[in-house]
Design goal:
The chain is mostly helical and 408 residues long. Helices cover 77% and strands 4% of the residues. Keywords: Membrane, Transmembrane, Transmembrane helix.
């Protein structure tokens, strides 16, 4: 486990380094094409100070990226270089890794491939890309069996939702399974499983002909995002608990604001169609908002109890799972539905339905009912997620976490 933790730290520093270099290169290219003598952007007098500030940011980012390379190199030196096998040392791999630290994106690609291809055995890091990839990222027999359980549950719920009277509910339970895949399989395995679940869900529902990239990327991106959140929670639960509560309060404040903009509509408050209803009365909306506020207050109280409780009891663990489930559900709905949903629907409607929606004109029009519907959908998702997460965690703990020698 210590080796895995060290590798994760190096991965984190590597990705931070890559992101900083990408930002630097992007700004640098923008500055180059903005030079007036090139005739691409004609600067006015008042724009000179803005461009000067931009150049200053580029210079600062350059030195930050250099510092980031030294910082990443420190972790390589302490966690990897001292444990390389004699065979790798003979190939002077250390020298090439040092050079790659200051070779920008090409060097980053070299280090990424190297990290994927190493594995720890007999006290040393060995390099075999195929073997290491299979060991680190392959699916064990237990993984395949457990993924089969989740897929079965997903397909059963999808069939019930699409081919029974339950289709009137019009809720997207696949988001619950994206969270489950990320929780049990991590970011990358989970994103593959989420993509497969989304594809086969559409196939069985008979809607595969309307497959569009704006929706196809949702399971991949959201699962990776959820995986990062779970990793942060496992790394530092107390700080994560505080951040989650602050984020939930901010999201609830946004929900209150959006709700307040719709209270004067005489026809009622418009929501995305749920349970066959596309509008709710003001009284119903206020009741739902009140319940949401009360529930968030309860969660804050449970979070305080969680932070003050020192012993690792079953009660504390269940409270932690409940709060994490709530935050993960809210996060995926905010990203996939509130932020991305309106844009995705506009692109989908323009492509398949022949509409001529313009994003800047219709984004808020489609976003508002989606946001308000969250008052109904999020509690249902949380109940389903928590009901599945606890028993599945027990199954995973007792059966699926045992090491297996065969991976695929």
């Amino acid at each position: 486990m210590e080796i895995i933790a060290k590798e994760k730290q190096i991965w984190n520093k590597l990705w931070l380094n890559v992101i900083l270099k990408l930002i630097f290169l992007g700004l640098f290219i923008f500055c180059i094409i903005s030079i007036p003598s090139l005739g691409i952007i004609n600067l006015k007098v008042e724009q000179v100070s803005q461009l000067a500030f931009l150049y200053f940011c580029v210079i600062v980012l350059f030195f930050i990226s250099i510092a980031s390379s030294f910082w990443e190199g420190y972790y390589w030196e302490n966690f990897i270089f001292d444990f390389l096998s004699p065979k790798l040392r003979q190939k002077k791999i250390v020298k090439w890794l040092y050079i790659s630290l200051f070779s920008y994106l090409i060097g980053s690609i070299f280090r990424i491939v190297f990290l994927i291809g190493i594995y720890f055995e007999d006290g040393y890091y060995q390099y075999n890309f195929k073997l290491a990839r299979r060991r680190k990222y392959g699916f064990s027999i237990q993984d395949i069996a457990f993924a089969g359980i989740l897929f079965s549950l997903f397909l059963i719920i999808s069939l019930i939702k699409n081919f029974t009277v339950a289709r009137i509910i019009n809720l997207d339970f696949e988001y619950v399974f994206y969270i489950l895949f990320a929780y049990f399989f991590g970011k990358f395995k989970g994103s593959l499983l989420s993509f497969m679940a989304d594809f086969f869900g559409l196939l069985f529902a008979g809607r595969i002909g309307f497959y569009h990239w704006v929706y196809a990327i949702v399971p991949i991106i959201t699962t990776i995002m959820i995986g990062f959140i779970i990793d942060l929670f496992k790394k530092n639960q107390n700080k994560s608990m505080i951040v989650m509560n602050v984020a939930l309060i901010v999201i609830f404040a946004i929900l209150i604001y959006v709700f307040s903009t719709q209270v004067n509509d005489p026809k009622g408050i418009k929501i995305s169609k749920t349970f066959g209803v596309s509008r709710i009365s003001l009284v119903a909306g206020i009741i739902l908002m009140t319940f949401a506020g009360v529930f968030i207050s309860i969660l804050i109280g449970l979070s305080i109890y969680y932070l003050k409780t020192k012993n690792d009891s079953n009660k504390k663990n269940r409270i932690g799972i409940l709060i994490l489930s709530f935050f993960l559900t809210v996060s995926i709905i905010v990203v996939a539905r509130w932020i991305w949903g309106p844009f995705a629907f506009i692109r989908y409607a323009n492509f398949y339905l022949g509409r001529n929606y313009i994003v800047k004109d219709y984004y808020l029009v489609f976003m508002t009912p989606i946001v308000i519907r969250s008052l109904i959908s999020i509690p249902i998702y949380i109940v389903v997620l928590f009901a599945l997460l606890v028993p599945l965690s027990l199954i995973k703990k007792h059966y699926a976490k045992k090491e297996a020698g065969i991976t695929y």
